[in-house]
Amino acid sequence: MLEPQAGQSTATPAAAGLTLSDTLDAWAGADSARQQVAHTVNALAKGAIALAAKIAEGPLGGDFAATLSSGEAGEGQKALDVIANDLIIGALAEAPVAAVASEENEAPVLLAADGPLLVAIDPLDGSSNIDTDISVGTIFAVFRRPEGANAADPVAFFQGGRDQLAAGYVIYGPHVALMLTVGAGTWHFALDRAGTFRLADAQVSVKEGTPEFAINMSNYHHWDEPVRGYVDDCLAGKTGARERDFNMRWVASMVADAHRIFRRGGIYLYPGDSRKGYHQGRLRLIYEAFPVAFLMEQAGGAATDGCAAILDLTANALHQRVPFVFGAKDEVGRVARYHLAPAGHGERSPLFARRGLFI
Ligand SMILES: O=P(O)(O)OC[C@H]1O[C@](O)(COP(=O)(O)O)[C@@H](O)[C@@H]1O
Ligand SMILES: [Mg+2]
Ligand SMILES: [Mg+2]
């Protein structure tokens, strides 16, 4: 994380309506390392705005949902994945970025080899929704290029979650929004009709106590005991251990589920499960879990793989997967405690029973 230098302000710019670039300028001041981050985020935003215009064309823009190839765990590459990748990486070419790691490229894409920064992206999150006009998004994380590191080598990206300098996502929904953190809270921008991101909320805060969970329930029979135990207790409602009814949502676009949680609380789970290729879940650590976890922590929420805080992990493969649970701090902590408890012998441990070991 970019530490404030002596004399630098950590105050969040509070003026609603401020443009993204003015907000970043105010944060960066005269600090050249911050200016590089600001430049890079502005470039990412420019790429995202071009992508938003493309997405808004819908079927008139071409067959976005055409499948180009199929992935190892069920994710195929769609035409819009490639368009998104080209637009975002193209926009980063004018930023001080040495290389980009993308979900859509096996190896890092080299830009300015001696650039000071590295960017990791999921250019289009929620590809399975392209043909249904449901919100999709772009997720990004910005890192420093380690001193002397060859940016074309994936190892340059094997950094810790807390090494992120900036992270965010753009959601292409009924309105286009950018959620951004540079380590000074989580900021919410909305794209105005003239094509400028403007600050809507400089102090996003994840609400606690919202009884709403997001998980793909069709995988229930593949989950491990701790996840079943947690979901069973939510489903039991008022008469169960939680003593309240829960609501469930699953958009199958992580950005859309995350955005709902930023707006009204709740929790998202994509655990590891017993399906081939899903033992570490589905989400990718560097360009999906790290940035969303950074945004969450900066908004007072939390993110875990069940055992450790996501931001405490260090990547060891470019496209590494990770079980991913994020949302309101109290609820994420609860899921982690289910993982600590003994699982019993194919049945729920007595510790998971009605009274539970939980608050
Ligand atoms: O179809 P599933 O297995 O429920 O998965 C949905 C999840 O997969 C993802 O779409 C993965 O993202 P991509 O579209 O970038 O592959 C998440 O956004 C979403 O939460
Ligand atoms: Mg994704
Ligand atoms: Mg994607």
UniProtKB/TrEMBL annotation:
Its EC number is 3.1.3.11. Its main location: cytoplasm. InterPro entries: FBPase_C_dom, FBPase_class-1, FBPase_N, FBPtase, Fructose_bisphosphatase_AS. It is an enzyme of class 3 (hydrolase). Mg(2+) 2 binds at residues 122, 125, 288. Belongs to the FBPase class 1 family. Homotetramer. This is Fructose-1,6-bisphosphatase class 1. The gene is fbp.
